[in-house]
Amino acid sequence: MPNKPERYRLFFALRPEQELAGQIHRATQQPLSTCDGRHIPLEKLHITLVYYGSADAEQKACLEQVANTIRGRPFQLELSKLGFWPKPRVAWLASNEIPEPLVRLQSDLSQALFKECGYQAETRPYRPHLTLTRKTTRAPETKEIDPIVWPVNRFALVQSITRPEGAEYRVINEWPLY
Fold first, then answer.
1. pLDDT tens string 62-88
2. Confidence band (pLDDT; 50, 70, 90) for 2?
3. How far apart are the first and last CA of the chain?
4. Secondary structure (3-state) at 156
5. Which residues contact 106 (CB under 8 A, 6 or more apart)?
6. Is the dihedral of CA 176, 105, 44, 166 positive or negative?
7. Phi then psi for 122, rounded to 5 degrees?
8. Which of 63, 104, 119, 135 is surrounded by the fewest CB atoms within 10 Å?
């Protein structure tokens, strides 16, 4: 019986440095104290740019080739807005204003993946956010925190591996913004 070809669950993301992830955790700990559910570990914090989903080795290679062509500019995200979406049951942190270079990066990546790799783009508007809790039923106790400035200077292709204890994320590759 031949082996099944390996499949990857892939997404492109912005990932905060460890120090910044710690700062986000400290700043949101009190407002999230009323949220039940599963809190996201620091090493898993990210903002999804494009969720590709299941891919084989050839599609994975296509994603990496496309990412090599993306020429985004570094930018700063000012994270201060806390929120809650009841349908997916998540609490999140976002910026009040989405910087133009982030909009351009997400759009360029999405369009290039559509053109080169057969990616089917989301129909919903792009709403960049860091998921802080999952399977929660209550909103954070406040809607704003003191702003946390995130200097974004790279993006990554990440593999999500499903485990009984939750997803494991592995960075496959990173690309600088310049």
1. 999 999 999 999 999 999 999 999 999
2. low
3. 48
4. strand
5. 49, 50, 126, 128
6. negative
7. -60, 145
8. 135
